[in-house]
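agent> Task received from the user: take the single chain below, predict its 3D structure, and emit structure tokens. No templates, no multimer pairing.
agent> Plan: (1) validate residues, (2) run structure prediction, (3) serialize to tokens, (4) report one or two observations.
agent> Step 1 OK, no nonstandard residues flagged.
tool_call: predict_structure(input=
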Amino acid sequence: MDWDEIYDREQARGVRTGQSFFDSGAGAASSSRRPNNALAGMDDDDDMDDPMGGIVPGNNNQRGGGMGLRRGGGGDLFSEDDTPETPLEQLTRHWVNERYAPDVLPAQEELLSGLLDHLRVQTRNIQVLRDDPETSESEHIRIMLVQTEIERVKFIIRSYIRTRLFKIEKYARYITSSADVQTRLTASEREHASRHAKLTDQHLYLSVLQSLPAAQAHLDDTPVFYPSMVTQPDKTRPVFVHALQDCPPVRFPDGVVTEMKKGHICLTPYRVVEHLVARGEVELV
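)
tool_result: status=success, residues=285
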């Protein structure tokens, strides 16, 4: 069977957007002909082929609420759309911020927990539908699309967690000595940072430091005119920021003061907009 042909035929019949797979109020699953229907928001006569509410293929004027370009339809990443973000859109924004920010950002533990719970429910319900002999051919196509979207969400979650772990291991000794940074981590992340820093210190001592004079066998020396021995985030690194709303004035390193209006994009050292990122007034791009 040619799945591309069937999909194109479904698209030619016309599609319409329904409730997002990860809308703010989305439940575990709705049902039409039978219970445990994983295709939330889809009736039997519903031709919506975008169950997670992303950009609808072949129709640039419709917008859902899930994957795809996250702010508005028509393929415009930065369109002026005041529609509240779905949990998946929020995670995508935090994921991009985490990847581009030199520092460790606050953990989104509650958001991740909600999405993972929803993924588990949807995966279980999809398996029920796949095993049901009454499932029609068109429903199998929709199930395949939902599974594809689930894998896309899993990729974002894994990448978000890997990015945080990379930073935590890179700045482990800095994190263990900074109470402020520790408040941005989950309990398991703090434990991992502490264990990683301890193992690294032990390795360096056994392989190198124990053979050096006592005055030089330290990892926390702060010699004048030399960089610190503890690796810290480089907050002077330039980043691109996109204003999600009108922001208060910010001062650049050269003394210039400017106001970032909604939709404005600029290149600036991370330190300048660090507080705006933390408040969610801007996003990194």
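agent> Step 4: summary for the user.
Helices lie at 3-12, 87-100, 109-131, 137-170, 172-176, 179-182, 187-207, 270-279.
agent> Done.
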